């Protein structure tokens, strides 16, 4: 979107954008405050080792959030992100260890499976007209159940050494996993900002009927968004394999449900569809990873983690709510 | 022919047929199926599941959903156990307190949803996480084992194949049926679920109906938690962890409309019977337990598709 287009945008949209920037600025401040707090409380927090670990965890959290974000953009949701992720994990492990394919081919296979499962979700939603929540709840259990039946829940831990070497690799103290995540972020930013497909996804989410009347093939767009979501979930799964150095059937699943919503929602992506924030989603994931790591370093342990994450999510949606009410008020005054 | 067609249109007819068919096949294939003990085990597992299904059913009725059914159940279960073991609260008081706690948790969900106007999905996702966090923060994953003998006995005793535990869900089912069919708040709840704008225009408070539904959902989750503690004989922090799928499967297979406004107490009961039958069949056939998850997912998809088909048929007829 050029500057000209922005100046021509209707006032609420512009205010939403300004509000968005303010909210992201606020988010950065909150994250910084947490970093200062944790660093002052525990000297180990800023050690290169911990920073490296935060980066690795962050990379996967960011991509899980993106996987949810692309579907939220259409006004839907995907509860099967974790299930698709773990299916990709086990497929990658199976292709490498049992079949003995070269690593790159196994990765391609796992990503293809993820995209295919996402496509199935989208296809079922569009064909039946049933809401995305219930379809993906059911398909999540189909996928996870199918995976457990086929693998008998046995982890695969004799993968080629190159896999875990990639997960341990350091560029400075930055993990290549994080670089993958940030590159995906750039691609998604370009997709939603500058491409027809991205704009169509947002249009379908903002107002499906208006989009359909303007010639957007809404059904096909929803299928594409779900396929993309499946692909992203599979990428997160493959990165997790490299981080753990093994393909575990216990990862993903319902454990990814909360993080997948936390990142985008804290970052300002609308649940009703039509608006996404790639940068906000990544920042949201950073907040979650920071808190998780901080609680670990402070040795509060993971017991209270869920509580904090829940409260933060609640806080974020409340702030978002009042931000929009405020923006509405400014709009009325200007008139 | 017309009779048959009308029967097919009743939402639980397919379920009843599936249950009868499944029962016949199971008793034919597995001789253990019809033993008194097996029927008792099946009915016992039926109790908690039914209440979990009801807890979700009431929120679906008003057009909402409640992801925190399991998390709230877990929290109530460990508070119930903790009150009796650590604080020495007598059983009747603990039961009342546990039910009140469940209702309070539901009330929080309802008030947050109504006051903020935020999608109930995200509110209950957040509160579910918070409830689970409090649960694990308090217990550090260590269960409470010393439950009063009366409670444990209540969870185990049975008359032939009929477990005493079953009394509670049957009473709740009757009351719920009455609530939705004959009382003003029950009808209001369904009216709001069916068409919020029409309900608004008829002078029904949409907000109050949503809050009532969430509070009722929390209460039912609380009762389910108490029964789960009685059934297990200890208050495990993991109670409720696997309720999410079940809570949606039961009402939806039972014919509840996802858009709200229509629920079926009887249908939900039949659905839970069918689920219990499937789980039991899996155990008897010594199949991987993972198949249950897979089949439940498939069953939900089939039920949704069937409901859709039925809606299209009745719409065009």
Question: Which percent range fits the helix content of chain A?
Answer: over 70%
The name of the CATH superfamily of chain B reads ABC transporter involved in vitamin B12 uptake, BtuC
- For this structure, the CATH topology of chain A is ABC transporter involved in vitamin B12 uptake, BtuC
Shape of chain B: globular
Q: Which properties best describe this structure?
A:
heterodimer, A: 335 residues, mainly alpha, ABC transporter involved in vitamin B12 uptake, BtuC, 14 helices, disordered N terminus, B: 317 residues, 2 strands, globular
Characterize the structure shown.
The complex is a heterodimer of chains A (335) and B (317). By secondary structure, chain A is mainly α. Chain A has one domain: ABC transporter involved in vitamin B12 uptake, BtuC (Orthogonal Bundle), CATH 1.10.3470. Chain A has helices at residues 3-8, 11-41, 48-72, 81-99, 103-128, 132-151, 161-168, 176-194, 196-206, 208-213, 218-244, 257-266, 278-297, 305-334. Residues 1-11 of chain A have low confidence and may be disordered. Chain B has 317 residues and is an all-alpha fold. Chain B contains 14 helices and 2 strands. In chain B, strand 1 and strand 2 (162-163) form a beta hairpin. The relative contact order of chain B is 0.19. At the A-B interface, helix 6, helix 12 and helix 14 of A face helix 6, helix 12 and helix 14 of B.
């Amino acid at each position: 979107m050029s500057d000209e287009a922005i100046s021509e945008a209707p006032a609420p949209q512009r205010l939403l954008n300004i509000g968005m920037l303010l909210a992201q600025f606020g988010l950065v401040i909150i994250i910084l405050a947490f970093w200062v707090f944790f660093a002052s409380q525990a000297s180990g927090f800023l050690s290169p080792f911990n920073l490296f670990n935060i980066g690795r965890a962050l990379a996967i959290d960011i991509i899980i959030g993106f996987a949810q974000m692309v579907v939220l953009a259409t006004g839907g949701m995907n509860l099967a992100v974790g299930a698709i992720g773990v299916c990709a994990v086990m497929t990658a492990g199976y292709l490498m260890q049992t079949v003995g394919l070269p690593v790159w081919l196994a990765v391609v296979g796992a990503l293809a499976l993820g995209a295919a499962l996402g496509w199935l979700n989208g296809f079922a939603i569009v064909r039946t007209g049933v809401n995305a929540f219930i379809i993906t709840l059911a398909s999540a259990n189909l996928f996870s159940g199918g995976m457990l039946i086929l693998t008998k829940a046995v982890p695969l831990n004799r993968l080629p050494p190159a896999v875990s070497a990639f997960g341990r690799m350091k560029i400075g103290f930055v993990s290549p996993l994080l670089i993958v995540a940030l590159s995906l972020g750039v691609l998604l930013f370009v997709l939603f900002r500058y491409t027809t497909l991205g704009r169509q996804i947002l249009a379908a989410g903002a107002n499906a009927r208006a989009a359909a009347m303007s010639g957007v093939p809404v059904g096909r767009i929803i299928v594409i968004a779900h396929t993309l979501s499946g692909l992203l979930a599979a990428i997160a799964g493959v990165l997790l394999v490299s981080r753990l150095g093994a393909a575990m059937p216990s990862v993903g699943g319902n454990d990814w449900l909360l993080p997948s919503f936390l990142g985008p929602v804290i970052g300002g992506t609308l649940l009703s569809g039509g608006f996404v924030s790639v940068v906000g989603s990544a920042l949201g994931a950073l907040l979650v990873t920071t808190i998780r790591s901080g609680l670990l370093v402070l040795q509060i342990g993971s017991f209270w983690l869920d509580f904090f994450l829940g409260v933060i999510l609640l806080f974020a949606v409340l702030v978002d709510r009042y931000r929009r009410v405020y923006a509405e008020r400014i709009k009325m005054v200007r008139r | 022919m017309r009779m048959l067609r009308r029967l097919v249109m009743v939402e639980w007819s397919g379920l009843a047929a599936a249950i009868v068919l499944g029962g016949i096949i199971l008793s034919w294939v597995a001789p253990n199926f019809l033993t008194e003990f097996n029927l008792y085990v099946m009915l016992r597992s039926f109790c908690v599941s039914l209440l979990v299904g009801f807890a979700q059913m009431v929120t679906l009725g008003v057009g909402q959903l409640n992801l925190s059914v399991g998390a709230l159940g877990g929290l109530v279960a460990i508070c119930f156990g903790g009150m009796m073991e650590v604080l020495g609260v007598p059983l009747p008081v603990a039961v009342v307190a546990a039910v009140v706690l469940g209702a309070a948790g539901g009330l929080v969900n309802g008030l947050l949803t109504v006051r903020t106007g935020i999608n109930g999905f995200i509110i209950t996702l957040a509160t579910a996480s918070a409830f689970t966090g409090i649960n694990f923060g308090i217990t550090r994953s260590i269960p409470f084992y010393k439950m009063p003998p009366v409670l444990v006995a209540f969870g185990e005793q049975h008359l032939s194949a009929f477990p005493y535990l079953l009394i509670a869900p049957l009473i709740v089912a009757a009351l719920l049926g009455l609530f939705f069919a004959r009382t003003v708040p029950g009808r209001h709840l369904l009216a709001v679920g069916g068409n919020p704008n029409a309900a608004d225009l008829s002078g029904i408070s949409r907000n109050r109906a949503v809050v009532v539904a969430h509070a009722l959902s929390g209460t039912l989750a609380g009762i389910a938690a108490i029964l789960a503690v009685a059934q297990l004989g200890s208050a495990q922090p993991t109670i409720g962890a696997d309720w999410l799928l079940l809570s949606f499967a039961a009402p939806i297979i039972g014919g509840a409309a996802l858009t709200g406004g229509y629920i079926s107490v009887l249908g939900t009961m039949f659905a839970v019977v069918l689920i219990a039958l499937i789980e039991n069949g899996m155990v008897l056939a010594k199949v991987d337990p993972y198949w249950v998850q897979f089949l439940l997912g498939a069953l939900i998809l089939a039920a949704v598709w069937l409901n859709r088909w039925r809606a299209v048929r009745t719409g065009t007829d």
